[in-house]
Write a structure and sequence with these properties.
alpha/beta, Neutral Protease, domain 2, Type 1 dockerin domain, elongated
Amino acid sequence: MCLQMFHLSRFIRFTRLLLLPFLLVCMLTSMRVSAGTLDDYYLQQFGEAGNTQLQKSVRSVSLETVESAHCGTPLKHSLKRDWKLLELSTQKVLAKQLAKPYLSGEKTYLSLSGRFKIHYTTTGANAVPSFSWVQTVAQTFDDVAASYAFLQWQLAPTAGNNAPYDVYLLNLAPEGLYGVTNSDQYAATASHPNAFTSWIELDNNFTDSIYKTGTYSPLQSLQVTAAHEYHHAIQYGYNYYFDIWYAEATSTWMEDELYDSVNQLYSYASNWFTQTTLSLDIDASTSTGGGYGRWIFNRYLTEKHGLDTVRSFWENLAGRLSSGGSDILMAPVLDSVLAAKYGSSLGNDFFGFAKRVYTRDWSTHTSEIASMHLYSPVSTYTAYPINSNSIPTPAVTLSHYSYAYYKFVPSVSASSDLVISVNGSSGIAAAVFKKAGGAITEILPDVSGKTFTATGFSSLNPTADEVVMLMVNTTSLDNQMASFNTGNNKIPGDCDSSGTVAIAEVQSAINMFLGLKTVEACVDLDNSNNISIAEVQKVINSFLGL
C-alpha cells in the first residue's frame, strides 16, 4: 500500500508538471477568459495596444504569426464570436476589423458566372498588377465554386437572392496572410440554424517573398487560396460555430482536392508529425501543426470511407446548436458520424491513421506523400533489455487522440527475439511493426493483446532492420499512461502466465524485493538477479491494470 501511494504521488506531481505548459497555452489561446484579458488579447492581435509584455506572451501562441503566411480566418472568426464579451471601448477600436474593406478608387468586376464580384483598385498599396489579373481571380473563383458544386457541397450563401459573393483584393503581405474569410450576416434556415453569409479578402498579387514565389507562381498561390478561403465561406453557410482546427484541416485538405498539382499543403504537416503527443484537436496554430497539418487525417478518412466522408461531418454540424455561443467541438461530431454512417469511430480511425503514418500504405497521392517526412519516433533504443532504468524512460503520457512511436535497432545486446510487453491505461492501443529489406509487416500480439514478439532481432543473426512500436490514446480522455519493456515475460509479475497479475503475485514480488523469496525472471525485468523497487512498482501497476 505504501508503495502504491508513493507511485501515485509521483504520478500526480509528474502530471502537474506535464500539464502546466499545456494549460498555459490553452489559457492564452482560449477566447473564454476574463473580459480584461480578452480585450487585451484582441487589441494586441490587431496591433491596437502597447502592452509589450502581453504582446510577447500572446504573440508566442498567435494563430497568425508563425512560420509563414497563412489564413486569417481563425482570428476574425473568434473576434466576432466574442464580440459581445468585449468592453465598449475595445469594440470601438476594433469595429473596423469586422467591417468590409474600403478601397480608394474602388472598381468592381463581375465574374462570367455572375457568382462573384471582385472589388479592386489600380492605385495605392492595394493596386492590382493588371485588369487581366482581376479577370484571372474571377475565373479562379468560378472554377472553385463549380468544383465544390460538383462535389455536392452546399455553396456559400450570399446576402441577397442571387447576389454575387464579394471578394476584395488587398495588400495582405504586411499582415502575413494569404487570405481571410469574414462572416457577415445571419442567414439561418430550418436545417441550418447558425448559417452566416461572408466575404473574402485576398492578397492583391501574391508576388511578395512570403508567398514563396521561388517555389509557387502567383497563379498557384491564388488557386489554393481561393479553394481554401471559399471553403471557409461554405463552412459559415453550414454552421458559424465551427471548431477552428477542423475548419482549417478541411480548407487545407480541399486545396489539394481542387488543385492537386500545387502541393503547398504537404509542407504544413511536419510540425504535427514531430509533436504527435499533442491532441488531434489541440488548436489551429501552425507552430503545432494545428489544423493546417492535420488535413492529412482527412486524406486517411476519405481513402477508407469515401470522398463524401468529410462533407458528411459538415452536414451533421449544420443542424447543431451552440452552447452559450461557444464553437461546437468537432471531435464528437466526427465520432458520431463515423459510428452512425460508417460503422467505425474516431478512436478506431485515428489508430488506423497513426499506423499508416509509419507503413505509408496510402492509396492516393502516393508520390507526393512519399516525399513527406511523416514518421518521427519519440525515442530510439539500441541497448537491451529496456526497463524502467533505461534512458529515456520507456513510458509516455498521451493526451486524447494522440500517439507516439518508439524505434528499436538490432544490436549485440539484443536477444534473438525482441519481446515487447506493453502496459497502458484503458483506451491505449498498441501496434508493433518489423521492417526487413524495406518491407514492413505488422506483428500481431499474443492472446493477452499486450505482448509482441519480433523474431530474428539480434544483430548477430538479424532478419530485421528495425522494429517500431506505436502507442495511441484512442479516447477523448487526456493524460493516459502507457509504458513498455523488452523483458521475456508477457506481463511484469505474471509468473503463472495467466495473462493477469493476482494479489498473491504482488505479494510474491514484494517478498523477492525483501529477500524472502528466490528471484524469478517474471519480476526480474532487467536480468540483474535482484529486484528493485521500480520492478515491484511495475508488478503493482500490472495488478492495477496501469
